Amino acid sequence: MTVRPITPVILAGGSGTRLWPMSRKARAKQFLPLVTGRSMIAETLDRVTGPDFAAPMIVGGASQADALAAAAPVNATLMLEPAARNTAPAIALAALHAEADTPLLVMPSDQMIADRPAFEAAVAKAAALARDGWLVTFGIEPTGPETGYGYIRRGEAVGDLGYRVERFVEKPDRGTAQGFLDAGGYYWNGGIFLFTAGAYLEALETHAPDILAAAREAMNGAVADDNRVSSRLAAFQRAPSISIDYAVMEKADRVATVPAAMGWSDIGSWDALHELLAHDEAGNALGGDVVAIDTANSLVRSDGPLVATIGVSDLLVIASGDAVLVMPRGESQRVKEVIEALKDAPQGKDRL
């Protein structure tokens, strides 16, 4: 039997508001060069090239079609969503466009994976499980009691490839997260999946038929223009806005996890980026036109005006375009408060 190569499905519809002001609607997080000199989506696409992988599908908003096309390799297919409906409907579009027995590796476009050999080893195990009918999620080996991620509790082993998922756990408080680490057998839910297109569509038919019906109708009227596939707005809008975790993974029976210690980060905050970047002797991560004098343990980054700091420590200072963000380290999750304030301010939406 011929084994189909894995088709990467890159989810690129996010807006990345947690990294405001550099990440905005017009230039979302996946298009930013945050860690290396290349954009996050370029790094993601690079790690799914080679003989084991087919040409990628990139799923993103129709409003970002030109930016996605500029970032995509020439053989990529752009699956354009006419409206944002979260991950379960987005993945349904890709699954409907593929052959039923095609393994789909579903990945966000804006994550960092430092250990490529470990990633490839995990993909190989997950692909073997997927070809046996499992819906696979990658369990990220936790490095601390993180409260910003959901967790996966492993159950019985599935051969030497992975484990049946016993349960998914919502984002815990710190004490609960520490208990997970102490108990063992818990992983971060990194939002990376591998399954065949047919297995995913069958799971939707069972657990979320309204999503499948809306996606099918949207694809039945889709317009293909070269490598761009544009689905129908009215039909796709009828799909509930729900994640794959809630719609399928928490409900299906044959769900497995493959543990992976691969240097993963979703770079979900300015604090997380500070931890990833190289530091100077004072613990600073500096980027762009920056002068830091008597400054310690800070992230100072600018893609526009000169930023100078004197006599400060433990700060996050981000300057981009027409906005400057200043906040203490450890408080970066509060960026969402700025986003909410701007939504209600005169001309505030122009800065989102």
Model description:
The protein is α/β, with parallel strands linked by helices. 29% of the residues lie in helices and 28% in strands. The chain has helices at residues 40-46, 65-71, 87-97, 116-131, 174-183, 197-207, 209-220, 233-236, 244-249, 270-276, 335-344, and strands at residues 7-11, 57-61, 77-81, 103-108, 112-113, 135-140, 151-158, 162-169, 186-196, 223-225, 228-230, 255-260, 264-265, 285-287, 290-293, 299-302, 307-310, 315-320, 323-328. It has a five-stranded mixed barrel. Strands 14-16-18-19 form a four-stranded mixed beta sheet, covered by helices on one side. Strands 5-13 form a two-stranded antiparallel ribbon. A hairpin with a 3-residue loop joins strand 7 and strand 8 (162-169). Helix 6 (197-207) packs across helix 7 (209-220). The longest helix has 16 residues, at 116-131. The model has no long low-confidence stretch (mean pLDDT 93).
Feature tags:
5-stranded mixed β-barrel; 2 domains; 11 helices; alpha/beta; globular; 4-stranded mixed sheet; 352 residues; Spore Coat Polysaccharide Biosynthesis Protein SpsA, Chain A
By secondary-structure content and strand pairing, the structural class works out as alpha/beta
Q: What amount of the residues lies in strands?
A: 25-35%
CATH topology of the largest domain: the name is: Spore Coat Polysaccharide Biosynthesis Protein SpsA, Chain A
Helix content: 25-40%
CATH architecture of the largest domain: Alpha-Beta Complex
How many helices does DSSP assign?
Answer: 11
Sequence stretches where pLDDT stays below 50 over 5 or more residues: none
Strand order of the largest sheet: 6-9-7-8-12
Average pLDDT number = 93
Counted up, domains total: 2
